[in-house]
Amino acid sequence: MVFLSEKEDISLVLCGEAGQGIQTVEAILAHAIKQSGYHIFSTKEYMSRVRGGQNSTEIRISSHRVASYVNRIDILLALSSGAIKHLEDRISGDTLIIGDPEHLKTVKEEGIFQEHGLNTDNFIEIPLMESAQEIGGLIFANVIAAGFISSILNIPKEIFDGLISDMFTRKGAQILENDLKAGEAGYQIGRELMESKSEIIQVSLSGQSEVRDELLMNGTDAVGFGCLAGKCRFMSSYPMTPSTPLQSFLASNAHEFEMIYEQAEDEIAAINMALGASYAGARSIVATSGSGFALMGEAVGLAGMIETPLVIYIAQRPGPAVGLPTRTSQEDLNLALYSGPGEFPRIIFAPGKLEDAFILTQKAFNLAEKYQIPVFILTDQYFVDCYYNLSSLPLEDVENENYLVKTAPDYQRYLITHDGITPQGIPGYGDGLVVVDSDEHDEEGHITENLDLRTQMVDKRLKKLEQIKEDVVSPELVGPENYQELVVGWGSTYWPIREALENLLQRNEEKKISFLHFKQVYPFHKSVAEYLERAEDVIIFENNAQGQLANLIKLETGFEIQERVLKYNGMPFSVEEVEENLKRFTSIENVDTSGAEEVSK
Fold first, then answer.
1. Are residues 192 and 250 in the same domain?
2. Of 167, 239, 551, 560, which has the fewest beta carbons less than 10 angstroms from its beta carbon?
3. Torsions phi, psi for 97 (to 5 deg)
4. pLDDT digit string (tens) for 152-198?
């Protein structure tokens, strides 16, 4: 058997215990791979613990663009004794398993993976622990591992050393020297392996020089840059996985971009601080996850009543309550849609590409201020943690508008207008008094119990929906306009569905099937019903148990999607399982979908 031969897309998985430095290996490899001209995609799955358990990171190294999670493993670097058992469902006879003799010992002795078609050629022992101890301790094993992988992927040593210097110089000369030694040890082990195993390990990836200058970022970075582009000036939040990285991003950039970041004592305080800043004229955002957002419901209603702009970022994870804190889901669409007492308009975005995350976040601040409403951005753990390279962000699409007005002496904060939108004044800007009240109020902002006026104010707020629908982002259609079958997805399912569909169509070019991706999930674009009704068959993929978007589509358009692929075990869809389900639903024959997982229907 020859491993990796003629592969233009390699799936490398690193697996070990929390605390072993897997993220360090990922960070080194990700940048080394891109600087070597290869395209890269990286995602991780990890347990909610500081040490122990089993965590893994998948890195796809490719000669072409990749942005999706795949189930297959071409190379498994096992950094712990439990790594192989943890990933056994993804291992096949084509998997090359590399690890320290101590980590591979139990598995090889028990022979428990013969059922997967593995034999002795599948296992490569490298002296990670011994080499690390010689350098100065087990702490250097992760850098040795990174050097080893870089060596067999033909990553130039000077690129690797430069990254090690950038990463560890701040820790002192002695630590940097030992890390460079660790990298050299890893490279040497890799060279020796490739020489001794040249007949069974052959890497044939091809790099592209232009990739080196491209951006490498994750979902958090894209949303964060969108906040900066949208002129966000205030963030208050309480840390909660997986929204915390966005808080760290904005806090670290706050000084340079004239922002204020405040870590509040809890979620209730956080959202009310953000509303206070917005009342004063600062574009504001609050970030949280599902169970943290549950505490914010009353303040969402406050934003609706006082008609104050606010961007609300929800990084989804499985619930109820704290659920699976470090896993992924699309379970909070209903929570965002129906949050807050009473009836008032809102907008909900759900980006699926990094470019979308950037421009939709920037747009969210404009629309929140234009319509004086809460605007939601829904991401999830998978989306915010995955990295891939892209040529650029759509900076040319950034356009900020200022909707704040200078108040006159007779200014009325809630003046009833033909479109429900009252020009927004802020305290101290002009001669008017800006009065807001969480109770029902008159046009000046003073509390009222006049029932006729109450009806007028509800109508005023809801009338904004007519204008909002003119600003709705249309869903993206991937594929021919004359499709017979239509695949539907939203948010982070974008790339797995798109890649799976492209794979299938390469094998059956005559098939008329397209993919409709929702990047705005409320309110819907007017074209949605037409897209759905044009298809003979519609299939939807969602990371929740009830088909929340499918149910919303039926509520809003009357169209019922019968065929639903629903996954809610905390993991994202892999390309293979999307292919398997598309094959079943669309009767595409002769498709190799080995490695696909079984999904609840």
1. no
2. 560
3. -105, 120
4. 999 999 999 999 999 999 999 999 999 999 999 999 999 999 998 88
Measured in degrees and rounded to the nearest 5, phi and psi for residue 389 equal -90, 145
Q: Would you say residue 225 lies in a domain?
A: yes
CATH number at residue 77: 3.40.920.10
Q: How far is Cα 351 from Cα 223, in angstroms, rounded to an integer?
A: 9
Boundary residue ending a domain (345, 374, 397): 397
Q: Which residues contact 562 (CB under 8 A, 6 or more apart)?
A: 538
Asked if residue 507 and residue 386 are part of one domain, the reply reads: no
* Residue 78 within a domain: yes
Asked whether residue 91 falls in the same domain as residue 33, the answer is yes
Beta-sheet pairing, 39-45 with 387-390: antiparallel
Handedness of CA 438, 440, 442, 446 (dihedral sign): negative
Residues 496 and 537 in one domain: yes
Question: What is the C-alpha to C-alpha distance for residues 260 and 245, in angstroms, rounded to an integer?
Answer: 16
Per-residue pLDDT, 119: 84
Which of 213, 421, 162 is closest to 307 using CA atoms? Answer: 421
322: CATH: 3.40.50.970
Neighbours of 560 (CB within 10 A): 11
User: What is the rounded distance in angstroms from the CA atom of residue 568 to the CA atom of residue 498?
Assistant: 20
The alpha-helical segments, DSSP class H, found in 173-283 are: 173-196, 219-229, 244-253, 267-279
Q: How many domains does the chain have?
A: 3
Task: Tell me, yes or no, if the pTM score tops 0.85.
Answer: yes
- How far apart CA 411 and CA 404 sit, in angstroms, is 13
Task: Give me the residues paired with residue 398 across strands.
Answer: none
The DSSP string of 53-79 is EEEEEEEEEESS---S--S--SEEEE-
Task: With CA atoms as reference, report the closest residue to 138 among 130, 146, 150.
Answer: 130
Within-domain flag for 187: yes
Q: Are 144 and 186 in contact (CB under 8 A)?
A: yes
In a domain, 58, yes or no: yes
Do 301 and 179 sit in the same domain of this protein? no
Answer yes or no: do 303 and 334 share one domain.
yes
Residues 280 and 181 both lie in one domain? no
Q: How many Å apart are CA 248 and CA 261, to the nearest integer?
A: 9
- What does the pLDDT read at residue 111? 64
Cα angle value 285/291/297 (rounded, 5°): 60
| Residues in the chain, pLDDT under 70 | 108-113, 115, 587-601
Provide the pLDDT for residue 474: 97
Q: Give the residues across from 55 on adjacent strands.
A: 16
Q: Which domain holds residue 325?
A: 216-397
Nearby residues of 341 by Cβ (< 8 Å), 6 or more positions away = 297, 298, 301
The length of the chain in residues reads 601
Residue bearing tokens 């007519």: 466
Locate 162 and state its tokens: 């430069």
145 phi/psi in degrees, rounded to 5:
-60, -40
Reading the block at residue 546, the tokens are 């009830």
**Domain endpoint, select from 397, 430, 452:** 397
DSSP per-residue letters across 463-484: HHHHHHTTSPPPPEEES-TT-S
